[in-house]
Amino acid sequence: MKAASVLDYRILAKRRLPHFLFEYFDGGSYAQVTLGRSTADLEAVALRQRVLVDISKLDLSTSLFGQPLSMPVALGPIGLAGIGVRRGEVQAARAAHAAGVNFCLSTVGVCGLREVAAGVKKPIWFQLYMIKDRGFMRTLLAEAKELGVSALFFTVDMPVPGTRYRDLHSGLAGAPGMLGSLRRTWQGMCRPRWAWDVGINGRPHSLGNVARVLGNNSGLEDFFAWMRNNFDGSVTWRDLDFIRETWNGPLIIKGILDPEDAISAASLGADGIVVSNHGGRQLDGVSSTVRALPSIVAAVGDKLTVLVDGGVRSGLDVVRMLALGAKGVLLGRAWAFALAAGGEAGVAHALALIQAEIKVAMALTGVTSVQAIDRNILASPENR
């Protein structure tokens, strides 16, 4: 069943995913204040409707980090996304490339770099966490370079994992050992379609990029324990030198919410930043990205490429973010739910919906190219 809108894929995914997985994809941290702000603040951005403009030809094409794209959208990195359907990150990457946009693989994706790169014909992007084991990181970055990864997204807003109570309540990160495993197994059995597709036929059930360090300890409890013990909380801006020593391609810093941090990223030679609050999954109570975006663009918009994520559920939301100064938008839950509900075809359909919605929003605001989308299409304060 195809969704009528991207939002419908959330409903379909809830029906098809085990409870613990849906809660993981859908949830935020603590009281989920920031998660709620992300969508509410974006919906509150009012646009100017313009009429009698020749909109017979609309150009959505753009370029990010030297790569031409059919529209200013990409699939952002999501940990464990590939467990929603069989070998999910490969399916999502195929759909993205078929639509003319790019896919960014998470360090903690189910499918590893080599598997995803082998499944597509174009270079992918890769998201990196700072791990205490620098030897492991060098190996991972060397593999990314070997496989033709075209841009590296370095996530900086997760020195420690946020407290996500929904994951504790659902059993994803709650009861340890056999009890937790039995609870998740039961939830999986309650979704027989998922159990057959992923539980039985979706092996290996491991995290491809970190499987070599997890070894035989590949259960979810093992992964979360490894993450808590191995993410490096001592990292500072000086550690970007280590990344640059190993990686000479485009470097994008993901997880910026403050103009001062954006200025630091620009001064240290980053090629881009992603204005992001980690989908509301880290520090609850921080700003939505749409509120943070304008001041960051004002601070560094002419020095590097500013991307944004957070709360985007439609092509209309994409246009709102572009109007506030972003050069591109990373989708998160929008593609994760479409993947879980419909696999590669679901992601392809979600991207087609978003592309159509961008066209409608451009036409009704009187702009004919994405490069022409700016603050001029925002409603004046008195009309909001």
Question: Which characteristics define this entry?
Answer:
10 strands; eight-stranded parallel beta barrel; 10% strand; 384 residues; TIM Barrel; single chain
In round numbers, the mean pLDDT is 92
SSE topology string: HHHEEEHEHEHEHHHHHHEHEHEHEH
Terminal CA distance reads 37 Å
Radius of gyration: 20 Å
Total strands: 10
Beta-strand content bin: 5-15%
Sequence of strands across the biggest β-sheet = 3-4-5-6-7-8-9-10
Tell me about the biggest sheet? 8 strands, parallel, barrel
The third-level CATH topology is TIM Barrel
CATH class: Alpha Beta
Structural class: alpha/beta
What coarse outline follows from CA principal-axis ratios? globular
Q: How many structural domains in the coordinates?
A: 1
| CATH architecture level-2 label | Alpha-Beta Barrel
Number of helices: 16
Look at the structure and name the CATH superfamily.
Aldolase class I
What does this structure look like?
The protein is α/β, with parallel strands linked by helices and 384 residues long. It has helices at residues 6-16, 19-26, 33-43, 88-98, 113-119, 134-146, 165-170, 177-189, 192-200, 211-214, 220-230, 240-246, 259-267, 289-300, 315-323, 333-365, and strands spanning 62-64, 67-69, 73-75, 102-105, 125-128, 151-155, 251-256, 272-275, 305-308, 328-331. Helix 4 packs parallel to helix 16. The protein is globular and about 65 Å long. The relative contact order is 0.21.
